[in-house]
Amino acid sequence: MTDFRIRPLGDRVVVKPVEREEKTKSGIFLPDTASKERPMEGTILAVGEGRRDDSGKLVPMNVQAGDKVLFAKYSGTEFKVDEVEYLILSEKDILGIIQG
Amino acid sequence: MTDFRIRPLGDRVVVKPVEREEKTKSGIFLPDTASKERPMEGTILAVGEGRRDDSGKLVPMNVQAGDKVLFAKYSGTEFKVDEVEYLILSEKDILGIIQG
Amino acid sequence: MTDFRIRPLGDRVVVKPVEREEKTKSGIFLPDTASKERPMEGTILAVGEGRRDDSGKLVPMNVQAGDKVLFAKYSGTEFKVDEVEYLILSEKDILGIIQG
Amino acid sequence: MTDFRIRPLGDRVVVKPVEREEKTKSGIFLPDTASKERPMEGTILAVGEGRRDDSGKLVPMNVQAGDKVLFAKYSGTEFKVDEVEYLILSEKDILGIIQG
Amino acid sequence: MTDFRIRPLGDRVVVKPVEREEKTKSGIFLPDTASKERPMEGTILAVGEGRRDDSGKLVPMNVQAGDKVLFAKYSGTEFKVDEVEYLILSEKDILGIIQG
Amino acid sequence: MTDFRIRPLGDRVVVKPVEREEKTKSGIFLPDTASKERPMEGTILAVGEGRRDDSGKLVPMNVQAGDKVLFAKYSGTEFKVDEVEYLILSEKDILGIIQG
Amino acid sequence: MTDFRIRPLGDRVVVKPVEREEKTKSGIFLPDTASKERPMEGTILAVGEGRRDDSGKLVPMNVQAGDKVLFAKYSGTEFKVDEVEYLILSEKDILGIIQG
Q1: Residues G69, G97: contact at Cβ < 8 Å?
Q2: I need a labelling partner for C82 at 20 to 30 A (CA). Which of B13, D56, G30, G46 fits?
Q3: Per-residue confidence at D21, pLDDT binned at 50, 70, 90?
């Protein structure tokens, strides 16, 4: 799973968003009927080596390939490989990790 | 209570907002009739490990799971697990801890 | 007075604003007739432990519970406990301490 | 003169603006007829202890009570004590000291 | 390939964008039919020596001439040499490297 | 010439702008007929002691009283002493020094 | 060529833009027919000593007098000496150096 075709730079990660039907099954993040926007759920496919702090040291990433994560719906940039949608986004835009 | 299904990243926390009726009972934060916006009340369910400062050190969190807190109404991102509403927000958006 | 029900986080303070009549009596901050906005007067009820600087050290607060202070009218967030209005605001928004 | 009723916080100062007539007498800062805005003139009545730099050290103030100063017309916050107008502003908004 | 006629300064790189037809062949980044904007694909022709951090040290570049990369469509500045289009952009605007 | 009546604070300088006719004589900075805005020319009359860097040290000024300088037309604040126009501006707004 | 009449301050440089006809001859940067803006080409006539970093040290310049450079069309400030157009701009606005 670390062999995804795109290797993200800096603190970016590649995420495969979870489809709507899967969400309903797991009981999380049903379609929003309220006014406020909901975050999206996805699986991390590849992670960058991390950003460098002010003194040039690498800041280790807090997520890894395989993690299921929540992220804000409009963060990141979409792209397609062989007709499948992916997103590339900064670790800062990941809200939390879905456990178990 | 630390076993909430979402583990927040960085200095984020997961909060369960208090319902309107409960607020009235406790005597705090009645529905706003004035022009200015009121903060919301909630209970912290899970906390991140904290943000890293400029030199990469972890800054310890000032809140913990179980704390009742005040936060600005429009901060954070809402999500649902099994039809229950939660918010994930940065510790910086928490105004204070409600005591006793 | 340090036992106020809300314990502010970081460099925030809880302030009880002074009523308009009291201001007139003390000779300070009469109702504004000019174009420019006037600051408000209030009494500090509770103070946070202070913000942390870039290296993680606590920066001590310059105000304490009991101080009468001036602050910009639109800073901070209002809330009510038992029908009484309070504000929670950052120490940075406090302009000065009223002496004597 | 250091006993002004408001003690400014941080790098703020309290200034008493000079009246228009006085300005004309001293030959400085006549009423603006041109397009560009002119600075105001005033006398410093009280100074804060200074701001703290990134490492928490106090940065000494460059002005003191009694200094006549130039400042941009729209900087700071106005207030009144006993019907007299004052301004509270940051030292950063003071352009220069009027000598002699 | 490191002898491209423009030597980028700082953390900039010169990129030759991939033509639309080539993309279709490789199976990546088909023309967008959805609402969200897709990143572009290109080949790096020249890289700067890197930006300097706050203490003046060079931060090494993470990309090199020959790398195939993804970048946001509107980042950078276009220019032409002998009727061929190139872009010069900051390394920060490169989202990831396309592998083998 | 260092005895100008206004002593600028921080990294500010007082500049006496050159009149339009003088500019024409010296062959520099003719009235603009093109779309883009031209810088102004002036003579520095007084300089502040410099700004303090993050650790509180004074950063020495690069200009001195007597220097002829170029500066962007809309930078700084105008003021008058005895009917003569001056500007007070930050050293950062000075583009260059006009030599001999 | 280092004796240009304007000595730029900080990390600024003086650039003489290349005329349109010259560009066509060299095969670079033909007039733009596409939607995106093209950078300009010019020759550096004078360079400042560099900016100072946070600790007050000079950051050396990456360009020197005589360099042919690319820069974004709307960066910098235009001025004229003896009817000839020049630009003064920050080194940060220089995209790259044109080689040989």
Answers
A1: yes
A2: B13
A3: low
Q: Tell me whether residue D57 is in a domain.
A: yes
Partner-chain residue, chosen from D9, D79, D82, that has the shortest CB–CB distance to C39: D79
The structural domain count of chain D equals: 1
> CA of B50 to nearest chain A CA: how many angstroms apart?
11
What's the rounded Cα separation, in Å, for the pair G14 and F41?
Answer: 16
User: Which pLDDT score is estimated for F30?
Assistant: 45
Q: Is the pLDDT of residue G41 over 50?
A: yes
What value of ipTM does the predicted structure carry?
A: 0.80
Classify the phi-psi angles of D27: left when phi > 0, otherwise alpha if psi is within -120 to 50, otherwise beta: left
- Stated length of chain F: 100
Interchain CB distance below 8 Å, D6 and C30: no
pLDDT digits (tens, 9 = 90+) for B27-52: 555 444 444 467 899 999 999 999 88
Any chains having at least 3 CB pairs less than 8 A from chain B are: A, C
CATH number of domain containing A43: 2.30.33.40
Q: Number of CB pairs < 8 Å for A and E?
A: 68
E85 assigned to some structural domain: yes
Which residues form the domain of B69? 12-97
Please provide the distance, in angstroms rounded to a whole number, between the alpha carbons at the two ends of chain E: 18
Interface check G12 vs F, CB under 8 A = yes
Nearest-CA distance E86 → chain A (Å): 21
